[in-house]
């Protein structure tokens, strides 16, 4: 959908935290915004790590590092798609300014300045979130004639850009060797060469975590002079030999 809003109205309806990408489009004037619905970010994170495509977080808590990486990847994909869409009309250059998560700090326009808000609904496994493009009305006014008759960008192209961006996100993988318990007295007496017995047998598969979430089982091994893990089980599926 599309609507015209004043800057104060736009900022006033934003939750905390918000994911607002600020950018300029040369040769146009003013600051543009891409707003990613926090619900969409939480849905993507849950889905990427094997959980249900549902919101898992309440408002009021700052984004984690992995959530911020996803926001940055999504914004980069949006910038590339937007620049490509404009190429059929005129040459433009998008210059990202930054990401703001606190709506109270958005002070880049006058309260009464009018913006055009274009909203795109993204559906992932039945759950929905929105991505909005917010354009200064004064910035687009000189180019209205040029935009007449321009076809809309294909939704499939946008989806492919977003999916491609998500696949490039790096995550932390950890292998848990085991756990053990010792008394405080023994802990204070530990010295080099002492042995702590863990709760895992030598041939027992180890827990593999992705972003600190248990996701797989595997066996410890070696590749060259580096330690490695051979995946034995992902979720409920076991891998052969």
Order of helices and strands: EHEEHHEEEHHHEHEEEE
Can you tell me the CATH class of the largest domain?
Answer: Alpha Beta
**Count of the domains:** 2
Strand order within the widest beta sheet: 1-5-6-3-2-4
Supply the number of helical segments. 7
Share of helical residues: 25-40%
Low-confidence segments, given as residue ranges, are 236-241
**CATH homolog superfamily of the largest domain:** CheC-like
Instruction: Give the CA-based shape.
Output: elongated
The name CATH uses for the topology of the largest domain is Chemotaxis protein chec
Report the sheet with the most strands, covering strand number, pairing sense and barrel closure. 6 strands, antiparallel
Molecular structure report:
With 241 residues, this protein is an alpha+beta fold. The chain folds into 2 domains: 2-167, CheC-like (Chemotaxis protein chec, 3-Layer(aba) Sandwich), CATH 3.40.1550; 173-238, Surface presentation of antigens (SPOA) (Roll). The chain contains 7 helices and 11 strands. The chain has helices at 7-12, 38-48, 65-86, 137-140, 144-147, 155-167, 184-189, and strands spanning 2-6, 19-26, 32-36, 93-100, 114-124, 127-136, 173-176, 206-210, 213-223, 226-234, 237-238. A 6-stranded antiparallel β-sheet has the order 1-5-6-3-2-4. The chain has a 5-stranded antiparallel β-sheet with strand order 7-8-9-10-11, with no helix packed on it. The radius of gyration is 24 Å and the shape is elongated.
